[in-house]
Amino acid sequence: DDGAWHDIGVDAVGGQSQFESAMYALRRCDNCDGNDATMHTWRNAGNPVAFFTGVLFPWVCSYTDGDMSTIEWTGREGMKCYCDNEPWGGR
Question: Which spans in 1-90 are helix H?
């Protein structure tokens, strides 16, 4: 059932829906059980007490030579990173 997708606001307001392209990619996951990332990874786990379902976002990093202020955050000189949690279609 893909109904939940339409109720959680994954697309930008007024933007073109990314549903079809996302489902196409998810259903062709080359390192997922059954090659389908739309299926819960614990669906064959028997009788679990609880599931954790979350969202993962990629980290995007850029580099600036000589910037020592980044060491505290990334452990590396000049490396600045952020979590890209923006909708696929933009805002």
Answer: 19-26, 71-74
11-36 pLDDT, tens digit per residue, is: 666 677 777 888 888 889 888 888 88
C-alpha dist (Å) from residue 59 to 45, 71, 77, 89: 30, 17, 17, 18
65: tokens are: 């030579």
Are the C-beta atoms of residues 64 and 76 closer than 8 Å to each other? no
Q: Does residue 51 sit in helix, strand or coil? A: coil
Report whether 46 contacts 52 (CB < 8 A): no
* CB neighbourhood size of 6 (10 A): 11
